[in-house]
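Case study: glycogen phosphorylase.
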Amino acid sequence: MKAIRRFTVRPVLPETLHPLSDLARNLRWSWHAETRDLFQSVDPERWAASDGDPVRLLGSVPPRRLAELAEDRRFLRRLAAVADDLRDYLTGERWYQTQSSELPAAIAYFSPEFGITAALPQYSGGLGILAGDHLKAASDLGVPLIGVGLLYRHGYFRQTLSRDGWQQEHYPLLDPNELPLVPLREIDGTPAQVALALPGGRALRARIWLAQVGRVPLLMLDSDVEENDLGERGVTDRLYGGGSEHRLLQEMLLGIGGVRAVRTYCRLTGHAQPEVFHTNEGHAGFLGLERIAELAETGLDFEASLEAVRAGTVFTTHTPVPAGIDRFDRELVAHHFGPDAELPGIDVERILGLGMETYPGGEPNLFNMAVMGLRLGQRANGVSLLHGHVSREMFSGLWPGFDPDEVPITSVTNGVHAPTWVAPEVFRLGARQIGAQRTEDALTVGGSDRWDAVADIADQEIWDLRRVLREQLVVEVRERLHASWRQRGAGTAELGWIDGVLDPDVLTIGFARRVPSYKRLTLMLRDRDRLMDLLLHSERPVQIVVAGKAHPADDGGKRLVQELVRFADDPRVRHRIVFLPDYGMAMAQKLYPGCDIWLNNPLRPLEACGTSGMKAALNGCLNLSVLDGWWDEWFRPDFGWAIPTADGTATDDDRRDDLEAAALYDLLEQRVAPRFYERGQGGLPDRWIEMVRQTLTHLGPKVLAGRMVREYVERLYTPAARSHRALSPDTARELASWKSRVRAAWPRVTVDHVEASAATTTAELGTTLNLRVRVALADLAPDDVEVQAVSGRVDSQDRIADATCVPLKPAGGPDPEGRWVYEGPLSLDRTGPFGYTVRILPTHRLLASSAEVGVVAVPAEGVGEAAGVLMR
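Here is what the predicted structure looks like once written out:
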């Protein structure tokens, strides 16, 4: 019979065991080995059955066992030590507390998904795992972050396969009371809630749940509350589910409701109010509108409120693919705002103006969440150097007149949280070398350029470690493959072959990620005969472990999964290549350490960063990848291989895949496999071990989330906090008024004449030209602008590359016609084709970038000498 109601019966812990509850509710256990070991010792069998989830474990331990532990002095000593360690971790001074007083009092970090642990399945892929690692690293560093997300009652889907290899989705119902969460409560004990106004007088209410991620609180909004109608209860049903209106409501709840949840949390706990709001991808962009509405209630007008909000906002874009950005129909957005809906105090046209694609090539009727994020954030970044470049190109239409390199989008290359992703065996090897505390500090705080202590680890130790990790992966793969085949309908008698799947002494390649088409899951199948030869080579075989989920609505991605599964089902090769369904954090933590090679073959440059290869590298796995994302930035032949790309415009997609697959096969046949199997005089693969050593030495410190979060603090959060503090209501009004005055005057700001004189008649290296420029500034004064000479090498179309910008100084004016003269030197500091031009930019002490206002004046055709080109 089916129950009509479900609820969770919590165990009553003996008083001496009460610290177990605190340890279970703080997600630090997910990356703290001693805490996990303590819970495992409570009941090893039930620990395994609970998939390593302390909350589930404590809910299943019999009272008799709890009574035994309450009298076990050795266990109680361990419990006291682990509880004391957590207390020290939560209250002690960490990296952030040793920095300057300019740092923000608090930062709110918004993301649609968070991958903290498999026990809290609120993630779909890299964006969520990155967000989880960001929170964990912030906790380790002592950064006062508040995380904000949604609590999805079905999480993301669980993946199984049909008998013929077709992906099937399952959405298990999650009970928040069985998750490592607690409800945030008002002072009177009632659950804390936020509410959004919906059209027609309806409301969307959401409860606030709290997950404690070390020192960092994560607020998660859940719309499945009794006060909501059935439709509103389902708003937070699934991650990335539903149609446009469903997604819009999710993103309004995340952004607008999220700010209200932060205000509620700070009111109830005394936590400092955030000075900086960080939007992790465009999904949370509406948070800026709520903050504008807050300021409007104090009497500040829209334009001044916008400037104040922008000053303290950081926006991170994660996609180089326009299709990966949420875009909504203009009328749908307009329907949900205004007098009869949410934010009635803000004119709907103002809201629409922040997200509309009002630039060349844009869709004028679409509201773009990333565009709104950029317009509402004074500081923005991509997630690798290459992705920063791609983002500046992609969004350059928002800054007309500027070269893409000048678009104000910087980059902070992603990192991964080492304590989460480094295998315990790898940590112990480091601890034996330099001590446990130094190893923990190296993996969390970071700060060094190299891990030189790796040089002192013996070759035999490194090779033995790699063999142990590979063997563990083989056991894990066989268990998962057996479970998968049983789900596909196979009987036990059919599955004897699984005991021979994979070999702990064979070169092992891993490939696991989401399955959009640009990641090219099936590139390895391009020449199946050649792949079979690699898998079955008599002396240098390879074996491949593949995992990945296609989006439920992506039938093309599902076909790629099916194609790979059918190849892996072939009895000739199924002991050498496997597809594991339901890729998630628990699988990943076994997969990365056990592989020798991590394969990544996206269409360049469509991989924003690609952090899975970073996690593999931290465990001594070598990367074999297209030069995309982070690998483009840090690749060196000392510790990996680059797959050549065929991305010329004359190459169609099929031809490109053929060429790049052939290059992949060549690398595996001629360089990778021979390097793994060749043995030196001592019987070890000396050159392979040296590549592992170089990976750990040089990549280890770079790929850390601790390094990433420190960069955010130093390069984005701290400047944003300074700007936030500078934008008092009066200065915000001043800046808004100044921008309005500049934009009104700008059509009449011109470069009217440019002339240059030189002491010699020849243009030789080291020559200095004296520039004299006449400009019209309309109603603006010299203090409002900067006149620059821009010079550098030129190409055949006279475009300036690697430009140098030198400000010119006013030398007189205004004349009767209102024109000013500017002068300054121009040094010919490089040989070859050289050119210069002049431009006018607005300037103000409160601007974060000279491109921020989005206007620039340059000479018209024919102004000056050869339109600014000096010589060839």
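For the exam, be able to explain this: The longest strand covers residues 203-213.
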